[in-house]
Fold:
Amino acid sequence: MATATTYGARDHARAQQGSRAEAMPVVPAGDWPAPPCEAGHLVWAETVAGGNYTHRVLARGTELRLTDLRGDACAHLLLYAADRPWERLNVADTVKVQWNAYLGEGRLLLSDQGRVLASLIADTSGRHDALCGTSTLVRNTERYGDGTRSPTPLPDGSCSSSPPPRTAWNHGTCHPRSPSSRASRSATTAPSTSPARPAPAAA
Structure:
């Protein structure tokens, strides 16, 4: 075994120089192919494998761009105030205050203290569901049925159609093609994914 000794492990590690895996950070970030801004303004570029996560502290005004390369990904985003880690993204308040569960361009991401952690400045997907998260038609049909009305016996023996389960309408699949958000205060972001590839963050 090549790595059975410390010398073997050292030689094996040195032999990996220049090797690239599909899911890994690009260092320096400016080496990202076709960067979305001038290379000198790029502060972070990383591919995140499906089911994995990454995190980064972003300065105020930093732009974070998430890109789904294959059309089958869903990114889950957590936000914390960097200097107050107990203050975090509150999805319920984000939805209630703006009266909108489908977040898109111009919407704000609010903390549990009522402060803006980030704002969405661009959105090419339009399918960011703040309530239901990742779901598929197959999975929801298995859990809740197909949403058709089913006959319900009434006390007199006749039948009436009952409404479908409240959750049966959730038949969408989350496909964030390329949302972009801007940090409104210094924030820690921790995106995790089903297969997804966050594109570089631009200062």
User: Anything to note?
Assistant: The first helix runs from residue 6 to 15. The radius of gyration is 22 Å.
